[in-house]
């Protein structure tokens, strides 16, 4: 049975915020700007990148925002869940790339088809929720990227699990051009970011924002979106 995956192009910006929070704004934090710079470098080098950190820290939002600015028409995104195998990833790429016909039954033929498609023009492939992948999944991506015919940059985004798997394997780790760790927002970052994040917080006293973050949000964008949604 094929694992559960989402396929396709970049989602609309309104989908980046947890629960589709209305009136939420993308804030130009240092992390967001660093992500844009790093992805630009990865695209120029046609390399691979690993973006990792705790859930709710803004990884997907930052990556999507950067790619909307840098490569909106050549980005193909996969979101992996439930321990995907190389077979699942093959089928995910087949759909994400919009390839015609039926997927080949044999792996060697499938890989040939994918490599031919990925050689036609430069593409950016985003593997989101990459913490679900095991070594075999990362090896499959390396196999595609290593092929001299393919013309791709690959961005892995996920929790600490993807970082640990990649770092354990020298052949994989040595191919990662940029590692970017996401962390929860500090107290100062929360104070600077949250009033601009949503109109609900624009005129709220700093002491209240500090208290909410300490007791409930803990520097997480996702937590702040959830709290904001309840307070509207």
Automatic annotation (TrEMBL):
PANTHER family, A to Z: GENERAL SECRETION PATHWAY PROTEIN A-RELATED, PHOSPHORIBULOKINASE _ URIDINE KINASE FAMILY
Domain of life: Bacteria
Gene3D superfamilies: P-loop containing nucleotide triphosphate hydrolases
InterPro entries: AAA_22, ExeA_AAA_ATPase_DNA-bind, P-loop_NTPase
Sequence ranges assigned to domain ORC1/DEAH AAA+ ATPase in this UniProt record: 45-166
Source species: Streptomyces actuosus
SUPFAM superfamilies: P-loop containing nucleoside triphosphate hydrolases
Pfam families on file: AAA_22 (PF13401)
The name this protein goes by in its record: AAA family ATPase
